[in-house]
Amino acid sequence: MRGRLTHADVDRALQDLKRRTLAPIEYSFGRLIYLASTRDYNTGIYYHDGLAFQFSEEIACQALSEAHEEVFFDLALRPLEELAQQIQLYIESVGTEPINVVRSWERLQPYRVVIPAEADALTAGLFLANVKIALPIVESRLRAVR
Amino acid sequence: MSEVVLLTGLGLVLLVLMAVLRYRFKSSGAAQESMPKPGVPLSVEIPQELVERLFGSDDWNFVRAQGSEQLSRLFLRERRELALSWMRGVRERASGLMHSHRMAARASSDLKPLDEMRITVYYLLFELLCQSLVLAVWLRGPVALTGLIERIDGLSGQLARVAGRAEPVVVDGGLNQT
Question: N or C, fewer C-beta in 10 Å, chain A?
Fold first, then answer.
């Protein structure tokens, strides 16, 4: 399904995406991971079947891209303390032993792929640095509650 | 005593910068490397929110409260790298802007010496502040530098405006008035 890309359509798709898909994800870091996962790493194109069916693939891609940027910049500029809380919430929701997830994140740095293509180098650098700093904090908190 | 050392240091930095500038003015080959990349905006200003987050002291206070020496070192190292990398980018773009301006000024039949002098002074001040930032980052650490960053950021924007107003600047293959 193809259609012309208009700002109004993208905006409607964006609102729809926020209401139906993103709202049930209760914290921003989870939304960021979800939105990044809708992007094809080889092409950089975002896919969402429901949204593409309702609007068009092009509009859905643009709406997902805009939502991704919005969530990313919001998180990147948050205080480190809040980011650490967000990461902890996400890690606890994964369903695997949280300490193992933290260690895996420290070793493999999978969070690097959640940065949108449009992010400037400085904001992206700040986000990556903050996640790197937040991980040992999350780890010590997880150990404390054990 | 420390003020004398600081002033002497700043004076030396200024002298070195002037020598570097003089060399760059003569060396067109080196200047060619600092040409702005197509599509890269000449304005180098960054959002206030980002400056606050990067160089403010809130995050540092939070990290210190964790009571881990290792974590504090990690934080300072990461922020130092970001501060220096940001400054390198800003300086590259300012240098590219100056190069474009010089090229346009050379071809200009209506050169205004006073404007040129003002641009040179802005650039020297900008470079001086950048060097002060490097010094501050290494001596004091990358925390609570918001004031200095804002001055550099403001001056770089001013430089872009003044240099752009004085002469047309070649960007992305065309002539744009910044």
Answer: C
Which residues sit opposite B71 in a β-bridge?
A: none
Amino acid, res. B121: V
Q: List the helix and strand counts (H, then E) for chain B.
A: 7, 2
Top residue of A87, A126, A141 to mutate, by most chain B CBs within 10 Å, is: A126
Cβ-proximal residues to A140 (8 Å cutoff; 6+ apart), any chain: B66, B68
Cβ pair A123, A76 in contact under 8 A: yes
How far does B77 lie from chain A, in Å, by closest CA?
A: 10
Q: How far apart are CA B49 and CA B46, in angstroms?
A: 9
Cβ burial of B95 (10 Å; 0-12, 13-18, 19+) is buried
Q: Which residue of B has its CA nearest to A125?
A: B82
A125, B80 contact by CB (below 8 A): no
Cβ-Cβ contacts under 8 Å, A77 against chain B:
49-50, 53
In whole angstroms, what is the distance from residue A100 CA to residue B59 CA?
26
Whether the model pTM is above 0.80: no
In chain A, what's the furthest Cα-to-Cα distance?
54
pLDDT in tens, B143-174: 766 677 777 777 777 777 777 665 443 333 33
Helices and strands (DSSP H and E) totals, chain A: 7, 0
* pLDDT of B43: 47
Across the strands, what pairs with B171?
B174
The token pair at A86 is 């967000």
Q: Scanning every residue of chain B, which has its alpha carbon at the shortest distance from the alpha carbon of A83?
A: B59
For residue A74, which amino acid is it? D
Whose structure tokens read 């070649």?
B170
Alpha carbons A125 and A76: distance in angstroms, whole number: 9
Give the closest-approach CA distance of B147 to chain A in angstroms: 18
Predicted complex ipTM exceeds 0.90: no
- Nearest chain A residue (CA) to B56: A79
